[in-house]
Amino acid sequence: xxxxxxxxxxxxxxxxxxxxxxxxxxxxxxxxxxxxxxxxxxxxxxxxxxxxxxxxxxxxxxxxxxxxxxxxxxxxxxxxxxxxxxxxxxxxxxxxxxxxxxxxxxxxxxxxxxxxxxxxxxxxxxxxxxxxxxxxxxxxxxxxxxxxxxxxxxxxxxxxxxxxxxxxxxxxxxxxxxxxxxxxxxxxxxxxxxxxxxxxxxxxxxxxxxxxxxxxxxxxxxxxxxxxxxxxxxxxxxxxxxxxxxxxxxxxxxxxxxxxxxxxxxxxxxxxxxxxxxxxxxxxxxxxxxxxxxxxxxxxxxxxxxxx
Length: 308
Fold this sequence. Notes:
The protein has 308 residues and is an alpha+beta fold. The protein is 26% helix and 17% strand. The protein has helices spanning 68-78, 80-92, 150-175, 184-197, 238-249, 282-285; strands at 5-7, 17-19, 27-28, 37-38, 42-43, 50-51, 96-97, 106-107, 115-116, 123-124, 209-216, 227-233, 265-269, 274-275, 290-296. It has a 5-stranded mixed β-sheet with strand order 12-11-15-13-14. It has a two-stranded antiparallel sheet with strand order 1-2. A two-stranded antiparallel sheet has the order 3-4.
């Protein structure tokens, strides 16, 4: 009786080569309780077993590696790079509505892809993707702060300087009946009186203190206490002195929140006639007995402000 010999297939082939007599061609089904001799056997590409016509499918012979061959083919056709980009794009592109106020089209769908505008950072449908279709030039880009026009900033600066000059004239008229002491002895006596009334952090060494008259302009600042006498550390910056003075006078201070110059507080040095920079040291710009005023919306510090 002729014998049947099964030869292992080469890599990449989906069939089994067999040698022997024509009458001996075939193989027995490996399905339990079947063992049928099939002259045209089928090989399962997942578990590499040989089966008859009835048990050729993975479901029929209860393949222990069901779906392995199909998954390998799918992975090979897509590739690792394509799979990653396809998955991430589906996760990130959620269905949304067109950003145009007159449009209700759903974008990021299979039928209507969304187009991101590079100027205003909004997502639009194909109809409104062009800048002239969604009035892009008049929109503030998402995530950007609104930029004021140069002319508007100039007008606000001029108004702030005019208010500052008016305040300076009123201040001069108020102190005219009581001029500051001109003699050295009188100045020392005034500073000594100031030191007795001044308040501040007692932990600051006496030799490092600078004693100041602090006021808040009523036209630009609402404060619970319009003026006071305080002492600060000479090593402190003007910005830190401003924070401490605003807290003592209970003036709203929003300098650390960002925004424009309209809401920022500045320190005006009366004797020096200028706005102090935040980074200046108080001991270098001020001396005991000086007067500083908290002003809002007067713009960046500039030298010789009274002469302007």
